[in-house]
């Protein structure tokens, strides 16, 4: 999958927040509820607002593949409540403002009963307020940013996720660094312009220190730099056993490459955004790199994994990524909520989502707590010489 990111794409990511403010005024003016009973036609519409082009297209495309496989299976088995699922998909162009526009269109014009939202936290952030305005559940399959489900005074009633949160995966990596790698001192790099990376860094630091470690350096970096040598030079004279570098794959890959060129051999630790060929494209050979993610095909203890792998490989002639698996589970969670809802409407499907019960999927088993942030175990993947050398699951 391609996640090549242009300078234009990076600029869009930052400008998106300003555009969202303008869009919010439009939403207020057009804020009629879209969550009423949906009874017409012989289909049930589910929306998808995903990054299918632009810098995050790899994530969105993989997730959509998992979603479409799940829809195919559900429809082949007779659908849900006697109706077939109709998937309405819109490309967000990897742009937060476009993500908000497409999510709004799905809820207001397409009359969907739920929307599976963007795969990246930066675009998900732009859409979170829309769900409450239109009373249609918005579900994130891989956007981990902690604040997505929280409105500052409590849980957003129509916003859910089926993945772990940033704080969960960062805490799991801190546990892994201390327990598996024996690290006592860590250096941390952070793109402090993004809430996603700030949350990861803060949670890793807090958990690492709580486990008896020390953070000896915490350095900000700017995406798009032509040379990260100066950033790495700030670590000279400091004693550390690991580097925590959460971020998107282009920048992280470039920093990894420069670190290895400078003779820095310590383990480099990352987060779920590392799950992309773009990381290796930017970094070159990935050695002694470890990252947190949502799914592993090596999970032989989960009886649902092999049937999913077989179906995915047959349909796409490709291997699923963690984003594919999350998309697959997320669609099935939505279907479960539709089955359990009193009637098929955004409001009642949202209520059923909040009362999901125990769900067993290919990414693990979980429920939907009051926070709308499932407690899920975290997979840590280790890379040596560009190949997976180990996989470990860290309990929530």
Automatic annotation (TrEMBL):
Similarity section: Belongs to the leucine-binding protein family.
Residue ranges of domain Leucine-binding protein in the record: 44-384
SUPFAM superfamilies per UniProt: Periplasmic binding protein-like I
CDD domains: PBP1_ABC_LivK_ligand_binding-like
Transferase is among the record's keywords: no
Descriptive protein name: Branched-chain amino acid transport system substrate-binding protein
Signal peptide feature range: none
Species for this entry: Brooklawnia cerclae
Keyword terms: Amino-acid transport, Signal, Transport
The organism's place on the tree of life at top rank: Bacteria
Keyword Ribonucleoprotein attached: no
PROSITE patterns given in the database record: PROKAR_LIPOPROTEIN
């Amino acid at each position: 999958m391609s996640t090549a990111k242009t300078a234009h794409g990076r600029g869009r990511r930052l400008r998106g927040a300003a555009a969202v403010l303008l869009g919010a005024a439009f939403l207020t003016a057009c804020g009629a509820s879209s969550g009423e009973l949906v009874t017409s036609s012989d289909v049930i519409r589910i929306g998808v607002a995903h990054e299918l082009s632009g810098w995050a297209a790899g994530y969105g495309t993989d997730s959509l593949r998992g979603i479409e496989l799940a829809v195919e299976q559900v429809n082949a088995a007779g659908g849900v409540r006697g109706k077939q699922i109709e998937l309405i998909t819109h490309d967000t162009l990897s742009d937060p403002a476009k993500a908000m526009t497409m999510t709004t269109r799905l809820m207001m014009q397409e009359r969907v009963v739920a929307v599976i939202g963007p795969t990246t936290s930066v675009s998900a952030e732009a859409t979170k307020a829309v769900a409450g305005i239109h009373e249609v559940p918005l579900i994130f399959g891989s956007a981990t940013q902690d604040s997505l489900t929280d409105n500052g005074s409590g849980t957003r009633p129509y916003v859910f996720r089926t993945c772990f949160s940033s704080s969960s995966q960062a805490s799991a990596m801190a546990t892994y660094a201390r327990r598996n790698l024996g690290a006592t001192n860590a250096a941390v790099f952070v793109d402090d312009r993004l809430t996603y990376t700030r949350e990861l860094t803060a949670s890793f630091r807090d958990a690492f220190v709580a486990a008896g470690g020390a953070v000896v350096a915490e350095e900000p970096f700017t995406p798009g730099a032509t040379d990260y040598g100066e950033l790495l030079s700030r670590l000279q004279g400091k004693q550390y056993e690991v580097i925590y570098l959460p971020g998107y794959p282009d920048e992280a890959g470039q920093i990894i490459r420069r670190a290895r060129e400078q003779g820095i051999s310590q383990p480099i630790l990352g987060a779920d955004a590392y799950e992309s060929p773009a990381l290796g494209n930017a970094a070159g050979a990935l050695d002694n790199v470890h990252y947190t993610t949502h799914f592993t095909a090596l999970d032989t203890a989960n009886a649902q994994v092999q049937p999913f792998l077989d179906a995915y490989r047959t349909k796409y002639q490709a291997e699923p990524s963690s984003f594919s698996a999350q998309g697959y589970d997320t669609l099935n969670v939505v279907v479960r909520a539709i089955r359990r809802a009193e009637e098929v409407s955004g409001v009642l499907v949202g209520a059923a989502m909040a009362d999901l019960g125990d769900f067993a999927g290919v990414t693990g088993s979980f429920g939907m707590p009051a926070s709308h942030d499932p407690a899920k175990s975290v997979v840590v993947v280790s890379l040596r010489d560009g190949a997976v050398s180990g996989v470990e699951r860290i309990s929530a």
